[in-house]
Amino acid sequence: MTEITLSPEPRPLGKSGLSVSPMAWGMWRFGGDDVRAAREKVEAAFDAGITLFDTADIYGPDNDEPFGASELLLGRVFAEAPGLRDRMVLASKGGIRMGVPYDSSPAYLREAVEASLTRLGVERIDLWQVHRPDMLAHPAEVAATLDALVTEGKIGAVGVSNHTPAQTAALAAHLTSGLASTQPEFSCLATAPLFDGTLDLAMQAGTAVLAWSPLGQGRLAEGDPRPGRGKPDDAQATRVKAALDAHAAKYGVDRTAVAYAWVMAHPARPIPIVGTQTPARIAASADAYKVSFTRAEWYAILVASLGEDLP
């Protein structure tokens, strides 16, 4: 029976001209004041074959740190080891303002990009994504601002995060520089992109998919608890963990490797964003490439998530 196999070989990031690893590392919980420890995490991601690094200007307050703290810490890592910047495709996001909550007005988008450049200490962000859609911003105005920032060389490519397929298509229709990526929540526990048109639109348009929280907001993680977790599993999580564990035993890997691999196996070739901040577990993320699926095995995990047979 034909199996779906995975490869660590780099692939295009949509039509951006950028080449990236099939997995990314995310910096939502990248914080603190220890630059050496921060650098170790970055280097662990490189050692795992990861070249796409995803942060955002809003990353900080969730760690009881200031707005922009994650970018600022990464900038300090770059200052200590400048060569690391040149080895990665650097992605960030903006458009969320504390207390607003969303602002994609032309003036603020430009302000957000330039502030991120300053915090990171770089001249260009390779992929800049609108973090959440601003319903009061016309996509033509958003596109014109982002196109200008691309022309100026401040950002290399444009992406979106947490946009519906219709919102994604509306912005893409006005972008002359093209839309490189979309970033939905997608995991064995959050399967909406399979059914709401997100992955279908990405395949139609040739857009890369970056999957945030591929471990179901930490609920599928092993030995890497996050603050606020530890709640009893609901029926869905119990079913999915059992299905993942059974498949993991077949390949001698842990549950998280199978969870990443399940996301990656879709033909849209989603790029899971590894969120762990533990170097050993960042390294273990590469075990996902050891996993393969028959169609029956992949669908069995989906059925476990849905709690009912497919029609």
Automatic annotation (TrEMBL):
It comes from the Bacteria. One of its GO terms (cellular component) is cytosol. SUPFAM superfamilies: NAD(P)-linked oxidoreductase. Residues 23-300 form the NADP-dependent oxidoreductase domain. Coiled coil: none annotated. Pfam families: Aldo_ket_red. This is Aldo/keto reductase. It comes from Glacieibacterium frigidum.
